[in-house]
Known about the structure:
The complex is a heterodimer of chains A (427) and B (278). Chain A has two domains: 34-151 and 309-379, D-Maltodextrin-Binding Protein, domain 2 (3-Layer(aba) Sandwich), CATH 3.40.190; 153-308 and 384-423, 3-Layer(aba) Sandwich (D-Maltodextrin-Binding Protein, domain 2), CATH 3.40.190.10. In chain A, α9 packs across α10 and α18 runs antiparallel to α19. Chain A has helices spanning 2-34, 47-63, 77-89, 104-109, 122-125, 131-135, 159-164, 176-186, 212-221, 239-254, 266-269, 282-288, 320-333, 336-346, 353-357, 359-367, 369-378, 390-406, 411-423, and strands at residues 37-43, 67-73, 96-100, 138-139, 142-143, 145-158, 199-202, 272-278, 293-296, 306-315, 381-382. Chain A is globular. With 427 residues, chain A is of the alpha/beta class. Chain B is mainly α. Chain B has a domain at 68-234: MetI-like (MetI-like fold). Helices cover 75% and strands 0% of the residues of chain B. Chain B is built from 13 helices and no strands. Chain B has helices at 2-37, 59-66, 70-101, 107-119, 122-135, 142-146, 153-164, 168-176, 181-192, 194-210, 213-218, 227-234, 242-277. Residues 274-278 of chain B have low confidence and may be disordered. Classes of the chains: A alpha/beta (427), B mainly alpha (278). The interface between A and B is medium-sized, with 32 and 23 residues.
Amino acid sequence: MTKDKTERGYIVRKKVLLLTLMFVLVFAIGSVATAQVTIDYWHYLSGDNSQIHEAKVAEFNRLHPDIHVEVLYTGNQFATRDKLMVAVAGGQPPHVALMDQFWPPMMVATGAMVPLKDFVDTDEYFEDFTSISLDTVTIDGEQWTMPFSMSNQILFYNKDMFREVGLDPEKPPATWDELVEYGKLLTRDVDGDGQIDEWGVNFTTRANIGAVYGFITFLWQAGGEIYNEDFTATAFNDEAAVEAVNFWIDLAHNHKILTLSPPQEGFEVGRIAMQYSSTSGIARTAEKVDFDFGVAPLPAHKEMVTGVGGSSMGIFRTTPEKEAAAWTFVEWMANEENNLEWSMATGYTPLRKSVLASDEYNQYLEENPFIQTVIKQAQYARARPNVVSYADVSRVLGIAVEEALFANVHPQQTLDNAVVEANGFIF
Amino acid sequence: MNFLRLRTNITRTILYVILLALAISMLLPFAWMLLSSFKAEDEVFTYDMNWLPSRIEFSGYYRALTLQPFLMYGMNSIVVSAIVTTVQVATATLAGYAFARLDFPGRNVIFLIYLSAMMIPVQATIIPAFILINRMGFLDSYQGLTLPFLATPFGAFLMRQFFLSMPKSLEEAAIIDGCSRFGVLLKVVLPLSKPALATLGLFTFMGVWNDFMWPMIITTTAEMRTLQVGLALMRTDLYPDWPMMMAASVMATLPVILAFLSAQKQFIQSLAFTGVKY
């Protein structure tokens, strides 16, 4: 009887022990699982770029079992910016977000972002980065976001159309004057019904903050500037700025080689001969069109300049643990190996000197003459000013240019007014 | 007499021609959307504009349905629109009736506050609303998607104006017969209010169905997105897949057209109503 009892007691104790062990085990596994840090990442890349990028995120997750990046495509730049602004204002930002080139100053001004010097000695870390890639992320001498991809404005042209009007397809226009000269030949009424069917040149003429970037390049080419030297006032009403606006007016209203209501995808269907575009679109356009496609540096005027576009990755202030995971993620995306891979897969300009100098990249350049043009032009690239007022200043500038172009307001007058208005946004 | 009749006929013909032209110009974008949804990708924009596809393609529809969880977006839109429409019509009816018929202290002041709330643009309230919903813990949920729209000043205003236009005597008769206030509303007023209810229901449904900004901001996972957000996500930077976008737009527009057609009779009647009364 008693023996029986002790035996049962023994069995019970054994069961208790087993259960305890199981609990310990479950908790141990559980704590390992919770040691994984999950971070939210928002981006706006689409099409092939999005697929390549999201595959890289998945690769990061595989290589870093302690971090899980939850990636979310949040629509194009404009949708993403609106969403990000509200999320930041509402105190609920993602841990990492992909940002268009002109957003960081605005975002930094909200106080929601972590400067990169919190994670790394930036002087040492960024030594390998090209100076233009750093220009896009440096605000008041500090790097706030991690450069991710970089593009430049570039000229696409239709070599078949050049041949049809007797132009040398290997000699794209190098200056504003040549742009006008070629444009006049290329603007044609093909079927003789009195309506222009094919236009010489096209670029975005709209005022919104992303698009005014197109005009700013013309402004720089004419020798003008948006701000004065110490950024205490705007300066886009001098002779150079007026010349740039007048050049647009001439193209549209005097030479009539630029239409203000261009046909949708006009370059791709052969109704536009020369299209100002982005280096990031070269591969996709080359694949889409069925004519002899050419890529050329932007026609220069007093200066040879092209604008920089692209994106960087920003880390938002959350908890030290999440911020550290976020840094690991953005740092990995821009490391040498991944920057090389991304540059060769997409045609974006490399961020790192070591990538530009690598054998693999030079091999890639040899196989891709279009990208050679891009890299040659890249030395003339300029980034938009990284100051908080840029968002408002460029909006005011864009509207002024639109007024001159669409409503025939006198350029000097509209720019003078705009400068006064824009100065109100500088503190 | 004949001359007069001729004149009215001519004016009428001119009027009809103008109306017809307007109707066609309103329909053209829809026609383009429908026709483009059946095109191959390289046929949407061509050297010369082509309205008709060279052959009917359903690939746009296939891509719209398979490249993203489009049906899930659709289900979310249906759930959100159904909840908001039902609840908003109910709250608007109760509030509108209270403003129209009940005598309570501060009624006119409260109604004035309602009216001024209508003047505030959505953009001004979107960040406070986001913060509020976030504090409630309703980000990325049906609660977050619906809560801000369950009661609106516009709905209360519309119903109040309608109730004011109804003869009081009907309700008084019911009350004398021993009917409660709520009974009056339910059994006497509401059966006569179908045009107003249909109008408000339709407005609300269309508003919620087409709303983009709020669902875009409040959702943080693909699972909670609505159709309009899904549509916007199709718009890529360089070469959007136009047939897919148009196919998705056709599918997203259909429920609204069906809702309009089903409420059309009541809707037009109520517009006529408002024309006479105010």
